[in-house]
Amino acid sequence: MSIKEPDQSVWNRFWQRKNDMDKVYPSSPSIIEAIKKNFKLEGLKVLEVGAGTGRDSAELARLGADVYVLDYAENSLKIVNSLRESEGFKNLHLVRGDAFKSPFPDNTFDLVFHQGLAEHFKDSLPLLQENFRIVKHGGCCLCDVPQTVHPYTVIKHILIAMDKWFAGWEKQFTMGQLKKLMRDAGFEYVYAYGDWMRPNLFYRILRELCFKFGIELPKYPLDGTAYQKIKDKILDSLQSVPVMHYTQLCIGVIGRKP
């Protein structure tokens, strides 16, 4: 099977369909938690590459960081701009451009991060090398990707084989592969984490199917219940345990530029 990486038109169509943020799940909360755990956010100069809805960037701006978002999909930036205007953020900046040839000088940012991006390219190393170029010495990059050993991977590749996957094609990583990618780009390992899909994959599939029939299930069906609070507390305590990375949907690594 030939590999066809998603182009700008794919992402513009995707974000045109997904412009109602109330219906779209945010990225894993573990991304923000990993950033908060490892960085002092006030005044931190941050770039999110491939911003999607921009909700992570908006949260970092709310916490005092000076945040830029870079995306080449116009419809993604429209969503982020709506969020920026509704919240009145003066420290959230939008830039349209190519992640592989970003319009920033060397050594610009304290932190560059992306979620759901590196897996869409046959060769992800040039992306991380470009991240390395624009990160300051002593600054960091966070890369968050799908984890290999998960039912999501099986379902994804069935849909790819049927030419039904939303992005056409996508790969995945083990924690070892992700750490190697970061090292190959020049970064030194700092921190690793992972997270499970909350709510789970099969509920999300059911919810998407219901949308096709005009039925909208709750985004978080057990939100606020004692069961969900206890479950989340247990999962949060396990998300950085190495063996758990083989059960999680997404994994992330933070690397530092020497």
From TrEMBL:
Domain of life: Bacteria
This protein's name: Methyltransferase, UbiE/COQ5 family
Domain (Methyltransferase type) ranges: 47-142
Pfam families: Methyltransf_11
Alphabetical list of SUPFAM superfamilies matching this protein: S-adenosyl-L-methionine-dependent methyltransferases (SSF53335)
Protein source organism: Fibrobacter succinogenes (strain ATCC 19169 / S85)
GO biological processes: methylation
PANTHER family referenced in this protein's UniProt entry, alphabetically: GERANYL DIPHOSPHATE 2-C-METHYLTRANSFERASE, ZGC:194242
InterPro entries: Erg6_SMT_methyltransf, Methyltransf_11, SAM-dependent_MTases_sf
Gene3D superfamilies reported for this sequence: Vaccinia Virus protein VP39
Keywords annotated in UniProt: Methyltransferase, Transferase
A molecular function (GO) term: S-adenosylmethionine-dependent methyltransferase activity
UniProt lineage: Bacteria, Pseudomonadati, Fibrobacterota, Fibrobacteria, Fibrobacterales
